[in-house]
Amino acid sequence: MISNILTYKLPFNYSNIGLFRYYKAAHILCPLLSGSNNESRIVVSVSTNSIQNVTFILRLDVQKSFNVLLNKEVSFNLSPSEPVYYYYSFKQNASMVLLHVKSDDVICMTLSIQNSSCPVFDLLETVQYDGLRQTVSKTGGIIISKDEYPLGLFIVFVVHSDNSACHRGNYQATNSRTKNISFVVKPTVDFNYQIINCLIVIFIFISILVFTTFCYHTKR
């Protein structure tokens, strides 16, 4: 089921320092994950202020690999007018995971971790409203805990119109902003579990030290 209304314009104007137009746009419809019925009715309404007829193409595709699995790498392309997000749930016996992101190019983007609820903030103007976020150029990573997202989470990728948020210096925005991304979710050790293990090791060491000292004084 689709639980929210999504609107956007074409041409898609997108820039921090100037005006750039994208004549192709794509957005993922936010699913209602708690729904028991997998069927959804989608209504599309199109309007224009142009006094001339406008020709356009509308296509609905199934998002591949929308549900992310542990240790399974996902690769895709995105642009400022085509943000992408995926869903991950903690159902594979992992209470804490590491999300590792890599790219072959230096195009700047924002990586965002959001609650699995609608709407999804997948524009640069709105991605800061919810969840964890990190600017990424070539590599990035975020540790995510099940305690913070017990019902699962959305992994959101939004490309910037220039690289100023990721690099120092003057960077001129260009229309060629297609970025290639690969990411994988891996299990990692809970920080609290690490502390417990360290305390156990310290306790064993102190116990051995006390026992050795006791035996030494007993023999004397």
Automatic annotation (TrEMBL):
Pfam families hit by this protein: SID-1_RNA_chan (PF13965)
GO CC terms, sorted: lysosome; plasma membrane
InterPro entries: SID1_TM_fam
Recorded coiled-coil stretches: none
Membrane topology annotation: Multi-pass membrane protein
A GO molecular-function annotation: double-stranded RNA binding
Keywords: Glycoprotein, Membrane, Signal, Transmembrane, Transmembrane helix
Localization per record: Membrane
TM regions (residue ranges): 191-216
Signal peptide location: none
Family in the record: Belongs to the SID1 family.
The protein's name in its UniProt record: SID1 transmembrane family member 1
Species of the source: Schizaphis graminum
